Every structure is written in structure tokens, then in C-alpha cells.
Amino acid sequence: xxxxxxxxxxxxxxxxxxxxxNLCMASVRRLKELRSTAELHYIPVxxxxxxxxxxxxxxxxxxxxxxxxxxxxxxxxxVWAGADGVVRIIRTVRGLRWLAPLYRIPGMGRIADRLYRYxxxxxxxxxxxxxxxxxxxxxxxxxxxxxxxxx
Length: 151
Hints:
It comes from Paenibacillus oenotherae. This is DUF393 domain-containing protein. InterPro entries: DCC1-like, DCC1_Trx. Pfam families: DCC1-like (PF04134). By secondary structure, the chain is of the alpha+beta class. It is 39% helix and 14% strand. It has helices spanning 3-6, 22-33, 45-49, 63-68, 83-90, 108-127, 144-147; strands spanning 11-17, 38-44, 71-74, 79-81. The radius of gyration is 18 Å and the shape is globular.
């Protein structure tokens, strides 16, 4: 079956990414601006730890495994990780779909995976990390009714 035709409108993909990685956060922000034929749900891996989100297909994976590369999960539980995950997303994005077949050229998958792993291993060094101080709602503003004191 052709992979492009498999991407039907209304398809739901869960994109698990490192929520403390500046490169990852910038990539997610950019992807949200693009038009996709799929319904993309972006989930920081850190939110899986506190139970805020559950993605059954990755329950057996450790947080370290999930943070090592992007994971894309479809509604049937199929998982694509690393460069495969990036290509899976690209297949749904209008204007970028033409790049997906390049990945099938002999040797390109291996090159893309090596490049992905090289950048992923250096992402904090090159792009930095976000402030982790707001994890678990620590930076949430207090409820409005607590601030409205009447004398």
C-alpha cells in the first residue's frame, strides 16, 4: 500500500517529544503552524511521567528511551521513532510530503537515522534546555478568587 494514501484525513498521530529541549520545542511550534492532513497531538514525554497523558503503545518504554528520540504513535498503536518518526510526520504535512519518498532511496534511511542520532545526542549542548522550574505546574498563577480579598 502506498504510504501517502494511507495518510487519511482525520488520522490521529501522537507526537512524543522532549519538553525540555529547545530544539524540540521550536520544532513542535513550527509544526503546529503547518497544515497537516492528520490530527497531530504533541505530548511532552515529561507529562507521561506524572500521568497527565497516557499513550498505551509506549507504556513499556522507559523515560530515557522516550527522551532519546521523537516517537510518533498512530491510533492503531504503530510506533515510529527518530528519523522514521520525523518522516511519518512529514508525510502528513502539506508542502513537505514530497520529501517523504526521498527517505526510501537506498541508503537514505540509514543516513537520515545517523544524522538524527548525531543531532539528538548534542541537542542540549547546541540548543540548550528550557527552564525545568515550571514542571508540574510550579509556575501556575494562583486562582483569581484567592487574590480578591475584601476587607
